Amino acid sequence: NGVVSGNGGCNDYSGGYQVNGQTLTVSALGTTSVQCADDVMAQEAIYLDGLQGARGYEIVGNRLRIFGVAGDQEVELFYTAQQ
């Protein structure tokens, strides 16, 4: 359906996504190859795994909640629209 893109804390990423009702699927994400501190890279990997593991979403007010699975962990990502 569209393209998702952003910055994971160190690297820019982009990929495709599809929406079917309340189901959200994010394709494999491509990233730039910037190297940052190990802790930043680890946090970015968790974030990108969570985004790629998306299974659904909901919008409440100006907040987007994406939920899914990364490995054996349930993941929730929250985004707030800019004012």
Q: What do you see in this structure?
A:
The protein has 83 residues and is of the alpha+beta class. The protein has one domain: Lipocalin (Beta Barrel), CATH 2.40.128. Helix content is 18%, strand content 53%. It contains 1 helix and 7 strands. The chain has one helix spanning 38-52, and strands spanning 2-7, 12-20, 23-26, 30-31, 54-60, 63-70, 73-80. The strands form 2 sheets. Strands 1, 2, 3 and 4 form a 4-stranded antiparallel beta sheet that branches. It has a 3-stranded antiparallel beta sheet with strand order 5-6-7. β5 (54-60) and β6 form a beta hairpin. The longest helix has 15 residues, at 38-52. The model has no long low-confidence stretch (mean pLDDT 93).
Number of domains: 1
Which secondary-structure class do the elements indicate?
alpha+beta
What oligomeric state best describes the polypeptide chains here?
single chain
Give, in order, the helices and strands.
EEEEHEEE
What would CATH call the class?
A: Mainly Beta
CATH level 3 topology: Lipocalin
Helical segment count: 1
Topology, number of strands? 7
Rg, Cα atoms, Å: 13 Å
If classified by CATH, what would the architecture be? Beta Barrel
Q: Determine the mean pLDDT.
A: 93
Ends apart, CA distance between termini = 26 Å
